[in-house]
Amino acid sequence: MSTPVDLSSILIVDSDIISRHAIAEYLRHCGYAAVEAANTDEALLAVAEPSLSIDIILCDVSAVGTRSGFELASWVRGNRPELEVKLTGNVDSAAIAVAELCESGPHLARPYEPQFVVDYVKRLRATRDRHNAETAN
Hints:
The protein is α/β, with parallel strands linked by helices. The chain contains 5 helices and 4 strands; from the N terminus they run E-H-E-H-E-H-E-H-H. It has helices at 17-29, 40-48, 69-79, 91-101, 114-136; strands at 7-13, 33-37, 52-60, 84-88. It has a 4-stranded parallel β-sheet with strand order 2-1-3-4, sandwiched between helices. Helix 1 runs parallel beside helix 4 and helix 1 packs parallel to helix 5 (114-136). The protein is globular.
């Protein structure tokens, strides 16, 4: 049996893959480990995963699954009070919550242009790749 790896992580729970991925990539760019969950069921599995050390859960209030975003937050507060839960109502509120963690948050707002999101993610990846190349040298 392998020893669990201690990775402090931020869990992003959002059924909108574009929003979830953009927020996760931004957090990774800021140096955080980001775990993505498409629904509350996946979120509960991530919280229970011994190889992850989830510190913060960023959850869309309209998250789908066997629990709503509110129910997930309530469960976490009752069963895992050491975890911080931030509920978000849309991409704007998610960006504000992420901005608290990083020096400046992503600039995504609904309704958004799909090409803007793609370009945004490409910029994040290019910045990350440059950073990785610089630190490798």
